[in-house]
Every structure is written in structure tokens, then in C-alpha cells.
């Protein structure tokens, strides 16, 4: 084949390539719009309390989950769902086509807090089978219990404001390794965490509740994850990160109670990093 023939073929194929790229772009955009619409419907649902709905302005669930690339047919694991704030969104969203795993506290733990937390979450799930009937509850109690989902099965693992707790407990490596194991190659890890001041060296125990962004990325990369992108969706420039009771000075905890309450309400919830990682293809 001479150069003229090769150029004719390239010229013929280029419009088709451009057309296919446009179709893919339109299809992706429509899928994102459908996901946003489905999530928005869930956010306004009666199963969510007024207090939880009030936090949407700080947690930006539609934008956050969209950034991570969630789809209704995925298998998604949430790490330490706590009181179930994101469970109220993820479980209904994934109920029909996907799977949702909630990796939480051990109901047989020696810790009374962990036992009560596990029971409260289970009771919440049992109270509304319409929304939570398909929730898979698993246990994450490192280093012994780390099977948060069948190995290599999850399309996505999500963790919201948990890394500082793992650092305090000395279990960060165990948890990141557990998340890596649960994900299939090419799967996504989505992280939201209180973001520390990069000019202050990281306290390895994160006693203030804040974690430097580069430190969080290093923890993930140590487990084998590849950093993909960050977003400012959950940023809050009003947060000075030097509060007397750490991040818990701010809402929703407001640990100082009545003292300077209005001041901290005006700041709002913490400045947060939103990070996306991928488990590399083998």
C-alpha cells in the first residue's frame, strides 16, 4: 500500500471516528444526567430525616458520587457507614440493578461503642425493608476481620471521613489493603476526608481529625492504588483548621456546645478533599 492509498483510507475513516466519539460523549452525558436525576429523587425521599437533608449543602452527594463515576448496576462497598447517612442514598440507588455492601463495626466486639454502633445500623436496615432490604452488612475489624466483600468483586469502594479514625487506631494500612482486595482490577476507590493544612506536618495519629491531602494519597498508593484525580466539590475555604477541639468544633458535632456556636455554624462543615483512585489492571 502506497502513501496515497493509506491517506485515502485515513481520510475515509476520520469522519466515522469523529462520529463514534460524539455518540460516546452524548451517551456518557445522558447516563450522567440519568444518574443525577435518580439520586436527586432519592435525596428528596421521605425516608431521609430533615437533619440529614440539611447536610446535603455540605456533603454534595450528587456531585460527589458523580465525580466517582457511580452507576446503578455497580457493586459498591461503603466503609464504616456510621449512622447510615450515605446508606440512605446508596442502598436505594443500587437496589434494583446493583449491590451495596456496608462494611461496619463488629457486633461481637469487645468495644461497647462498636457493638452499639453495629446494632443501631442493623436496626435501621431492618426498620425499612423497602429501602434497605438488599443491603449486605459485613464486618471490618482490622487486623482480624477485613473481608468487606468477596475479593475482586467490587466496582467501587467508598469511604467518607474515616481515614483519621484509622490513623488514630493504627489500622490505616490494614483498611486500605482490605479495600484494594475487595475491588476488581480497574475498580474505583472514592475518598472524602477532612483536609489538613499542608503547611503543617501530618500528625500520624490525626488527633485533630484533619489529614493532609498528600498524606492520604501516599496511604492509598502504598496499598497499590493509582491516584486519578481530585475535586474541590467538598471544599470549604472558611475552615481555618485550627479549632480548639479540632474538626469536631465545627458542625455537625459542635463539641463546644453553646460556646461560640454561631461562629462555627457560620463556618459550616469542614474543608474536605475528594479523591479518586483506581486499582490498576493487571
What topology does this entry show?
Layout: H1 3-43, H2 50-54, H3 56-59, H4 61-68, E1 75-79, H5 87-94, E2 99-104, H6 112-127, H7 129-132, E3 136-139, E4 154-160, H8 163-169, H9 172-182, E5 183-194, H10 213-222, E6 226-231, H11 261-267, E7 272-278
Parallel strand pairs: 1-2, 1-4, 2-3, 4-5
Antiparallel strand pairs: 5-7, 6-7
Helix pairs in contact: 1-4, 1-5
Description of the molecule:
- It is a single chain.
- With 282 residues, the protein is an alpha/beta fold.
- The protein folds into two domains: 1-44; 49-278, Rossmann fold (3-Layer(aba) Sandwich).
- Helix content is 43%, strand content 17%.
- It contains eleven helices and seven strands.
- It has a seven-stranded mixed sheet.
- It is globular and about 80 Å long.
- The model has no long low-confidence stretch (mean pLDDT 93).
What does this entry show, briefly?
The protein is an alpha/beta fold and 282 residues long. Helix content is 43%, strand content 17%. The protein contains eleven helices and seven strands.
Task: Name the features.
282 residues; alpha/beta; Rossmann fold; 2 domains; 7-stranded mixed β-sheet; globular
> Cα distance, first to last residue?
37 Å
Shape: globular
- What structural category do the secondary elements indicate? alpha/beta
Largest sheet: 7 strands, mixed
How many helices?
11
